[in-house]
């Protein structure tokens, strides 16, 4: 019988350690109460991107911080799961006692390797009924594959020394490594999944355990051992399927072993703060933890519980996944910046289910069905805000489609030229050089002087000196001003808005400033020419926040460990 003393101690430690990322190492003799699953995060064999030390937040531009695991672990905490970690002590039968799931993040050669005793303890833990969640990655990066295979192979899974390569436009967001997977088997880990996205991940092999599979055109690009920088292959199929198997390839694997369960996911960034809410990555993580903890029949499935903060959905399917593209006209920096605010959860969505508190659609290029138009309208009927933005010269028919549905009287002019919706595809406004001081009655833009930049890769490092900023000379009489810009005696529209149904429909008739070419790198603090648009996005998100949103992602601060 579990003593009241130990139950009290667990509660004290769980509460006290919220404020201290160094206090998670729970004494091995504490018995665990049945008030929710317990997860042990292994930070002894890897410190990379762990949820104690790293979180995407304001001012965090380091790679580890951008792709830390704080958000998914915060969601677990918000929904009755408990977790501890081992940082300085190896795994053992005693240390694993009382835990339901062992989480092994991408292991690294800068930390100790698994000892024979640890390998034995892990296998015994799973065989006895425990859940094992392993994050792998491409090839043998950080020497992870050779290390985790020592305990995975005896249990029926092998991490390959390869990159899972797939092809655009259906199965790749960017290049050949940022893949888009939509083939899932009938398994609890794949429940309600439509798409997941890996950022240069790797495949596994098992005996029928594949849960998420690449396309039949994909292949496993074998690691070039001479490449010790990125641990990549050569990004081409070299003709030998015994070395480079062709797809479909397992990038998520789930198997039973003894009385326990194992899930292996072939990419670390997939659950990082910057990417966990892209397409269905978050749902995959939630399903995996739930299945491993043997809670897949829970009355309130973990993947259906609201994440923290105001939810802003950024439509991806109809914009050809531009939120995941790092090119000049992509919006990856914009998407990452959404999640720097702990009171916001920015979601790269592939369907409209009304889950979000606000909806953003940037330069759509894929047509909407009548059902999807009705689904978007339901956001407005619920009193929510829907934002549509586009860049002149890049407009395609789906933008017209949305304008006809929600702003049929919309028109714009530039100088003496006026365009209605039907002629919008040919609308070519003139540019006006320099920065414009913003004003708005709807949101705070005080002190922001906005401009946009054409992208010139030869001058990127000196953009503010070598590339003249611009905005388009655009005005509209539709609705009311949402944001305007003024320079001297010239005033232009940045955004307009009108009440539609019970909500607000907001149109940005120019949005070049939201593109990577002006927003800058997601891994670099805003420079002089990036900062105004960075502040504009931040203030726009503040405007979209709702009072009923869930509590924010907790930013842990170091304090003295509690005395017990």
What structural keywords apply?
single chain; 564 residues; alpha/beta; Rossmann fold; 2 domains; nine-stranded mixed sheet; 13 helices; 28 strands; disordered N terminus; disordered C terminus
Write structural notes for this entry.
Helix content is 20%, strand content 23%. It has two domains: 4-304, Class I glutamine amidotransferase (GATase) domain (Rossmann fold), CATH 3.40.50; 310-544, Rossmann fold (3-Layer(aba) Sandwich). It starts with a helix and ends in a 20-residue tail after the last helix. The strands form seven sheets. It has a nine-stranded mixed beta sheet with strand order 17-16-18-19-28-27-26-23-24, with helices on both faces. It has 564 residues and is an alpha/beta fold. It is elongated, with a radius of gyration of 25 Å.
List the helices and strands and how they pair.
Blueprint: H1 4-16, E1 38-42, H2 63-66, H3 70-78, E2 82-86, H4 93-96, E3 101-104, H5 116-127, E4 131-135, H6 144-152, E5 157-159, E6 162-165, E7 172-174, E8 178-181, E9 183-184, E10 196-199, E11 204-206, E12 210-213, E13 219-222, E14 250-257, E15 260-265, H7 281-292, E16 310-315, H8 332-338, E17 344-349, E18 358-362, H9 370-381, E19 385-389, H10 397-406, E20 411-414, E21 417-420, E22 431-433, E23 436-439, E24 449-450, H11 463-466, E25 470-472, E26 480-487, E27 490-500, E28 503-508, H12 516-519, H13 531-544
Parallel strand pairs: 1-2, 1-3, 3-4, 4-15, 16-17, 16-18, 18-19, 19-28
Antiparallel strand pairs: 5-11, 6-13, 7-8, 8-10, 9-12, 12-14, 14-15, 20-21, 22-25, 23-24, 23-26, 26-27, 27-28
């Amino acid at each position: 019988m579990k003593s009241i003393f130990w139950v009290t101690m667990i509660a004290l430690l769980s509460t006290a350690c919220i404020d201290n990322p160094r206090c998670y190492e729970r004494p091995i003799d504490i018995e665990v109460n049945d008030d929710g699953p317990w997860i042990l995060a292994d930070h002894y064999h890897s410190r990379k991107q762990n949820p104690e030390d790293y979180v995407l937040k304001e001012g965090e531009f380091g790679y580890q911080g951008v792709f830390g695991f704080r958000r998914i672990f915060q969601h677990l905490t918000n929904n009755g799961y408990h977790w501890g970690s081992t940082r300085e002590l190896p795994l053992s039968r005693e240390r694993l006692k009382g835990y339901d799931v062992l989480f092994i993040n991408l292991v690294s050669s800068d930390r100790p390797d698994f000892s024979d005793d640890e390998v034995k303890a892990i296998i015994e833990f799973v065989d006895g009924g425990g859940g094992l969640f392993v994050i792998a990655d491409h090839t043998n990066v950080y020497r992870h594959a050779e290390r985790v295979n020592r305990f995975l192979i005896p249990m029926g899974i092998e991490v390959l020394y390869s990159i899972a390569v797939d092809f655009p436009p259906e199965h790749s967001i960017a290049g050949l490594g940022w893949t888009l997977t939509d083939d899932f088997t009938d398994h609890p880990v794949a429940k309600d999944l439509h798409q997941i996205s890996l950022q240069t991940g790797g495949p596994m092999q098992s005996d029928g355990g594949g849960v998420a599979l690449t396309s039949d055109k994909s292949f496993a690009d074998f690691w070039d051992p001479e490449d010790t920088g990125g641990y990549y292959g050569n990004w081409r199929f070299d003709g030998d399927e015994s070395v480079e198997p062709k797809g479909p390839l397992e990038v998520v694997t789930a198997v039973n072993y003894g009385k326990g369960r194992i899930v292996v996911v072939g990419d670390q960034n997939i659950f990082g703060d910057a990417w966990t809410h892209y397409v269905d990555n978050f749902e995959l993580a939630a399903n995996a933890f739930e299945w491993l903890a043997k809670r897949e029949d829970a009355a309130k499935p973990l993947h259906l519980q609201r994440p923290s903060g105001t939810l802003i959905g950024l439509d991806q399917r109809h914009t050809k996944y531009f939120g995941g593209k790092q090119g000049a006209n992509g919006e990856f920096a914009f998407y990452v910046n959404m999640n720097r605010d702990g009171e916001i959860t920015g979601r790269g969505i592939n369907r409209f289910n009304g889950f979000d508190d606000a909806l953003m659609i940037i330069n759509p290029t894929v047509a909407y069905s009548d059902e999807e138009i009705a689904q978007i309208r339901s956001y407005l009927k619920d009193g929510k805000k829907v934002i549509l933005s586009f860049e002149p010269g890049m407009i395609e028919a789906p933008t017209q489609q949305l304008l006809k549905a929600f702003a049929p009287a919309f028109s714009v002019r530039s100088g003496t030229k006026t365009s209605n919706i039907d002629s919008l595809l040919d609308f070519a406004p003139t540019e006006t050089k320099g920065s414009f001081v913003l004003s708005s009655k709807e949101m705070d833009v005080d002190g922001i002087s906005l401009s946009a930049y054409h992208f010139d890769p030869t001058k990127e490092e000196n953009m503010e000196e070598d590339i003249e900023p611009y905005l388009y000379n655009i005005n509209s009489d539709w609705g009311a001003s949402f944001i305007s810009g003024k320079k001297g005696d010239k005033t232009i529209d940045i955004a307009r808005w009108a009440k539609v149904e019970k909500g607000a429909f907001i149109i940005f008739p120019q949005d070049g400033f939201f593109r990577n070419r002006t927003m800058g790198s997601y891994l670099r603090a805003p420079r002089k020419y990036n900062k105004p648009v960075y502040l504009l996005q931040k203030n726009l998100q503040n405007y979209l926040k709702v009072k009923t949103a869930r509590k924010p992602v907790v930013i842990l601060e170091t304090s003295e460990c509690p005395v017990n």
